[in-house]
Amino acid sequence: MANGMTTERTAHRDAFSPDTASTRLHRALRVRLCEGDFTPGEVISIRRIAAEYGTSAMPSREAVRWLVTEGALIFSDSRKIIVPELSHDRFHEILFARKNLETEVSRQAFDNIAGTDIEALERIDERINTAIAQGDLVSYMRGNYQFHFHIYRLSHSQVLLPLVEILWLQYGPSMRYICTRWGASSIADDYHREVTQALRRGDRSAFCQAIAADIEQGMLLLE
Amino acid sequence: MANGMTTERTAHRDAFSPDTASTRLHRALRVRLCEGDFTPGEVISIRRIAAEYGTSAMPSREAVRWLVTEGALIFSDSRKIIVPELSHDRFHEILFARKNLETEVSRQAFDNIAGTDIEALERIDERINTAIAQGDLVSYMRGNYQFHFHIYRLSHSQVLLPLVEILWLQYGPSMRYICTRWGASSIADDYHREVTQALRRGDRSAFCQAIAADIEQGMLLLE
DNA sequence: CCTCTGCTAGTGTGATCACACTCGTGTGAT
DNA sequence: ATCACACGAGTGTGATCACACTAGCAGAGG
């Protein structure tokens, strides 16, 4: 049980899902992928994961293979399971899809965002800013994930939300990799401030545009 | 080996995927789900599927659980795996997401659609029309799937296309169910003719609108 | 006649082993 | 020194079994 095998509820499983060793491992690995705990190209061995989490190979095998069907892991040429290295085109495709789906999810969430939610978002944004100031990349990526999905969950969308999570699973490792290459300065200017301010004004249009701008800002790192 | 366990290439696995008993079974079940071979509420037993396809429980277990992570199957209250019965809201959500994603995928595919593709689409549409005339629901659903994904595959999108397939997996069984309730007459007026005619004129805008209209037409069945 | 108990068949889950394949390495022959 | 073969460690896959749990039913006891 080396890493945080939490049972916290992620949004991906809207329907009932039994709490088994496989599902716990699956959730734990999902979080690690979204937060960039793995390096693109890294080999993910079923037996090694099983040993890390103190289970047999069976739950590990299921969790890893589920991640393959979600596109978060892929097969290498030699039948090994690895963390994908996204090509430039594919990374751009994911960000384009993110902009498309996440602005729509945000639009649906807008009416359900209460004052307490705005305060929670501002607290998360503060933590993100201190993480950036300290160059703490892990805390930044975790905060960024929490900020976006605090909003998206309020959409109560049972269809689009799982699709958005798949996109984050796929781009998480590469995003972490790109950030380490560019340094913390490259992510200094996100649009979270614009997001919360638009929410305080009750300006739905500006809110959606700020979300889109925040995602588009990630595309600039590719050029 | 009761049902068609084909090895035909579906679009969902853009990356390399080994050809094993599990993946073959997974593909076979995906096709059956998209074509409406299963009834909402039907129990999917791992051992029974294994017996049907003449394999052991292991590949069946993997294939079925993969479909659960894709949202094509869900857990019932008593831990059994069943084909989901979509609520009205959820069905509407899926169609909304389909309209959003599939018009975008079509827009990307437009430049890659050659004359031979248009002819292929017209041939598929003819088969669909005869299926409707004969009240052959299975052939209709298969043709409809082929028509749409012949277009979508030409987008060469590695990200959006798997998401679209997930949506079809989820709504396939319920769509079949709805069609049987309404009879073949309800699906008589699709927009496939408008799609191919817009392609012949080279009118991208009209093409995308026809795709969107074809999907929206499905929403009318819900009211 | 009703009720409660216990059996049975079925479910998914987890563990373990055998197999085929790949990659690297070391050893032996040329 | 160089090349070739073989061995070993590691990989995912498939089969099989034991376990816990659930639903249904049959039968004994009230």
Alpha carbon gyration radius of chain A: 18 Å
Reading off the top of the CATH hierarchy, the class of the largest domain in chain A is best stated as Mainly Alpha
Helix and strand composition category of chain A: mainly alpha
* CATH architecture designation of the largest domain in chain A: Up-down Bundle
Q: Give the quaternary arrangement of the chains.
A: homodimer
Distance between the termini of chain A: 40 Å
Shape designation of chain A: globular
Question: Superfamily at the CATH H level of the largest domain in chain A?
Answer: GntR ligand-binding domain-like
Strand content of chain A: under 5%
Query: Which series of helices and strands of chain A comes N to C?
Result: HHHEEHHHHHH
Uncertain spans of chain A, ≥5 residues at pLDDT below 50? Answer: 1-14
Q: Please state the average pLDDT score of chain A.
A: 87
Structure description:
Chain A has 2 domains: 21-82, Arc Repressor Mutant, subunit A; 88-220, GntR ligand-binding domain-like (Four Helix Bundle (Hemerythrin (Met), subunit A), Up-down Bundle), CATH 1.20.120.530. Helix content of chain A is 64%, strand content 2%. Chain A has helices at residues 21-34, 46-53, 57-69, 88-109, 115-133, 137-153, 160-182, 192-201, 204-220; strands at 74-75, 81-82. The first copy, chain A, has a two-stranded antiparallel sheet. In chain A, a hairpin with a 5-residue loop joins strand 1 and strand 2. The structure holds a DNA duplex (30 and 30 nucleotides).
